[in-house]
Amino acid sequence: MGTEVDLPGHIGTYVVERELGAGGMGTVYLARSRGGRPVAVKVARPELAADPNFRARFRAEVEAARQVGGFHTAPVVDADPDAAAPWLATAYIAGPTLSELLDRQGSMTEPQLRLFGAALAEALQAIHRCGLIHRDLKPGNIIMAEDGPRVLDFGIARAVESTRLTTTGSAFGTPGFLAPEQARGLEVGPAADVFALGAVLVAAAGGRAFGEGAPMGLMYRAVHESPDLSALPPGLRPVVADCLAKDPAQRPTPQRLLDLFAPKAPPHPTAAPAGGGGAAAAVPPGPTPTAVVGHVTSAETVEQEPKAAPRGRARAALLAAGAAGALLLTGGGLYAAGAFTGEDGDTSLPPATHELTTPITVVSGGYFRDRETWTKEPNGKSVSADYSGTSKGPRFREFSLTGSSGRFKHLGEERDRLMRSLTYTGRERVTDPRRDLHVPGSEITYSCETVTDTTVYTVCVWADTNTVGAIKFTPSARLEVAAAETQKIRKDMRTPIVTHS
């Protein structure tokens, strides 16, 4: 942050009040018009200002950005591409960034995620209609205003990307939210923003689609590995998985996302709780405004990298709602929340005796583990893992595991919910309808179904007092064969809990 001595007195006709932050293009200042209107002014870095390619692209992008309307963006109100330091002014939006809100209040519930996803889809519609692509949608570029989320910094990323400061094959944007084609330095289209929207929703649910670590590692996983969707409610995993498809052509359009997130038009609550957020666009003249969101007081927008969001409080709230019998939407209808319990004092459940593990090999060496991702929960842990068949004659070329260890209520609902999350995509065709199968020697029943989507696969799910799991087999097979193989895999992966006195 700069000091008062470092501040420019004016940018254009706007009086600068203070620095808000800095990003890839330059520095952002809170300023006021002569009529007292607050604006956010972004000034280009000197090295960008010296690049004629940047100026030409910036001028074109600003003209397009002036046309963007919609409820979920910060409108461009002024710009000067020909200034010594080119600048862009947008209406000032008071409120915390999404990353700040998640850091302080925890993750969103499923209804909140659906409304938030629909709002972002509307914002992308408005941006794309004007021929723009955001290219850097992330939690730090989304303001959670009183009247809903607002997307910032559209219309400038391509200008920065076009400068000689970036080289052929390099990527501009934020690793972890970059689409595969963007991470590889290829030409991008609107589908890249849809990919980023999917990653933002995972962050809003308290997770990270491609984990943490070095930027190159994040980009590698975005290009080559499946996203970690375990933080999302099961009912949202299919649509977010589609958003995060490696092939841009397989991602839904913003209009399709609106149909999936908000098939009807519910009353739209504010993105922040009542009493939160600041006013969008015009904030009355006076002292520098702050946004109060619940018990959190946050100053105006500061660009920052997304932070990991604590999930404990929001997860506990979701559990409490489920215990009261609250209903949440899933991809296939409604289910009663609260099947997962973390209350150690709940004597209505038997003690936990087993948990899921992911051995290096399973089924007598028939499959070898390629990948595993663990997520801790207040009441247990969740895992996803991929296995490939070996030369020891497995029945399937590969399989993926998705499951949780804990103590569960309403086992049938848990099993149904997991099945829906893996077989509902909106475009699938059921090849072999779901059947409940009992494998000789097994104490539980497996539910299996074969689905044709971009590929054909068979899914088998189970639920017992301690573990809930699903195995997705490729290629597909008769349901009886898949159930028998699931029994073998589950036997290797479900191990006794070792307690120490």
Describe the structure.
With 501 residues, the chain is of the alpha+beta class. The model is unreliable at 1-5, 162-171 and 266-346 (pLDDT under 50). The chain is 27% helix and 26% strand. It is elongated and about 80 Å long. The strands form 7 sheets. Strands 15-16-17-18-23-22-21-20 form an 8-stranded antiparallel beta sheet, sandwiched between helices. The chain has a 6-stranded antiparallel beta sheet with strand order 1-2-3-4-6-5. It has a two-stranded antiparallel ribbon with strand order 7-8.
Shape: elongated
> Mind summarizing the main beta sheet?
8 strands, antiparallel
Number-wise, the strands total 24
Strand order of the largest sheet: 15-16-17-18-23-22-21-20
The SS-based structural class is alpha+beta
CATH class of the largest domain: Mainly Alpha
Query: How many individual helices?
Result: 13
CATH topology of the largest domain: Transferase(Phosphotransferase), domain 1
Strand content: 25-35%
Q: What's the domain count?
A: 2
Shape-level CATH architecture of the largest domain: Orthogonal Bundle
Distance between the ends: 54 Å
Low-confidence stretches: 1-5, 162-171, 266-346
Task: Output the CATH homologous superfamily of the largest domain.
Answer: Transferase(Phosphotransferase) domain 1
CA radius of gyration: 25 Å
Look at the structure and give the mean pLDDT.
75
